[in-house]
Amino acid sequence: MKIIWDWSLDSETDRLLDVANGIGNGFFALQGFCPLPWPSTSKHSIASSVYLPSLNYISIPNFWSSVAKLDSRQYPLVTSKSLFNSTKSLLSSISLLPPNYGELERLTSTTVPQVINFIKKFISNITLPSELLIRPTHFGTGGSFSLIDDSGKITIYLRIDKGIKTIVECLLTSLLRGNAMQELAASWSETEFLTDWLITSSALSTILPADPTWESTLSTTRRSVSTALQAQSAHFLAQISAPTPTSQTFLAKSGQIYFGDCPLSSLTSREVALMTRLVAKSPAPLTLDEIGDLIFNQEDKFSLAAISKTIERLRTKLESSGISRHYLATASGVGYYLKN
Q1: Do both 237 and 273 map to the same domain?
Q2: pLDDT tops 90 at residue 217
Q3: Which residue spans does the record list as DNA-binding (predicted)?
Q4: For residues 256 and 254, what is the distance between their CA atoms, to the nearest angstrom?
């Protein structure tokens, strides 16, 4: 497997847009991450901090609504040339030093092949990567990644204060998440648990080097955030005119579904009815039978496959409206619920 390290202003622009997407569509708020200004000056910063430079983003027309609607399943995000160039120009106004990752590069070259051998031995029927592209970055979460693509390539963004276990975490989750979500209806947090367990408690833990920079994702995102840090994050989001968690909730009103102040006008009448029930029951799940009563005219037409397709279409519409698809979650064996 080929391992490539790459850093440039273009790669940092991609990363900035990715972070802005997670803020704009509500993903970070939903999963317990805390956006903060870069460079970090806070005594209270935690492992779930997400760093973004304090720039004049609204100088780019419709910046936040545009980045929120980018398809987060494509990684790096596919953007218009205009949005990319405008963001790159904005980013070039600050001084970014190329990171020094020589020692970590050497450690990665010996550790990753061992991880791949572990996967071969203990996990069957899995596509192994042919290329790992690692992009060090100043911004974002500790690490982010693409799901392995048809060519076997995986892209990882590694924040410069993180180390080898974050690379391994991204690699494992990239390989496991797609199948776990598609075949087992696993949630985002359930796939994170699987990776955290492999790193901390499986035989893999005995071959990984020590890494004091790493903490498991679930333990960090489920940790309570101090009032001081919440206030700092809210102030930062207001300063850069970004959407805030308090504005990212669903509401059913007058036969229409709203996300914050924005009506979701692309929904069909059946989807509005489904979302209305989901909003009313949130956070409790809407059962499969209840969903069936809403979308099937006759009882003998009930189909789990049709329900699954209906939910997936709804998730796609949410994402195209700039709302994270993860708001609509699966309650395994029961139905679906809205994280609101």
Answers
A1: no
A2: no
A3: 237-340
A4: 5
Tokens of 340: 């609101």
Tens-place pLDDT, residues 276-324: 999 999 999 999 999 999 988 766 678 888 999 999 999 999 998 889 9
Shared domain for 282 and 234, answered yes or no, is no
Query: Are 125 and 87 in contact, with CB atoms under 8 Å apart?
Result: no
Residues 138 and 186 in one domain: yes
- How many structural domains does the chain have? 2
φ/ψ (deg, to 5) at 79 = -125, 165
Query: Dihedral of the CA atoms 193, 196, 197, 203 (nearest 10)?
Result: 150
Q: Rounded to whole angstroms, what are the CA distances from 40 to 68, 134, 232? A: 24, 23, 11
335 close to 291: Cβ distance less than 8 angstroms:
yes
Q: Which residues of 179-192 are buried (b: 16+ CB within 10 A; e: fewer)?
A: bbbeeeebbbbbbb
Contact 283, 339 (CB under 8 A): yes
Extract the tokens encoding 158: 């590694």
The β-bridge partners of 5 are: 134
Q: Are residues 218 and 289 in the same domain?
A: no
User: How much is the pTM?
Assistant: 0.85
Q: 207 — alpha (psi -120 to 50), left (phi > 0) or beta?
A: alpha
CA angle 26, 219, 104 (to 5 degrees): 95
Say whether both 223 and 191 belong to one domain: yes
Of 269, 6, 285, 338, nearest in space to 156 by CA = 6
Examine the domain organization and report whether 142 and 69 are in the same domain: yes
Domain containing 216: what range? Answer: 1-247
Q: DSSP string covering 104-154, please?
A: HHHHHHHHHHHHHHHHHHH--S-PPPSEEEEEEESSBSSEEEPPP-TTSEE
Report the C-alpha gap between 278 and 282 in whole angstroms. Answer: 6
Q: Give SS3 for 34.
A: strand
Same domain as 310, residue 187 = no
